[in-house]
Amino acid sequence: QVRFVESGGGLVQAGGSLRLSCEASGNIFTFYSAGWYRQAPGKQRELVAVFNNSLTPNYADSVKGRFTISGRNNLNTVILQMHSLKPEDTAVYFCYARTRDKDYWGQGTQVTVSS
């Protein structure tokens, strides 16, 4: 069973930066994809930045040039560095990973950007 330890969310002013970290706990897993999604109040969960199965990062258009995803240890640790944050980035950010046959989600960490 995959469990994640997420950290790094919080409150920041517009234009500021935050760094989110997600680490799989308990074992070293083989992930075919891993990254971050987010969900704002009243909206659907959306992709923010995810490594696909060829380890190429995919970014939402809204975060390109501002967010950078990095991974290590076969994607058992995934970092999302966020710069130039905007109020519309406010959401709960969820860590995500996929094994051969199942998707796994973290419990989420709140990011709030004040104007």
Radius of gyration: 13 Å
Shape: globular
How large is the count of helical segments?
0
Main beta sheet: strand number and arrangement? 7 strands, mixed
Number of strands: 11
Q: Strand content of the residues, in percent?
A: over 45%
**How do the SSEs run, as a string of H and E?**
EEEEEEEEEEE
- What share of the residues lie within helices? under 10%
The structural class is mainly beta
Distance between the termini: 40 Å
Rounded mean pLDDT is 96
Given as residue ranges, the uncertain stretches (5+ residues, pLDDT < 50) are: none
Task: Give your account of this protein's structure.
The strands form two sheets. Strands 2, 4, 5, 6, 9, 10 and 11 form a seven-stranded mixed β-sheet that branches. It contains no helices and eleven strands. The protein starts with a strand and ends with a strand. The chain has 115 residues and is mostly beta strands. The chain is 0% helix and 54% strand. It has strands at 3-7, 10-13, 18-25, 33-39, 46-51, 57-59, 67-72, 77-82, 91-98, 103-105, 109-114.
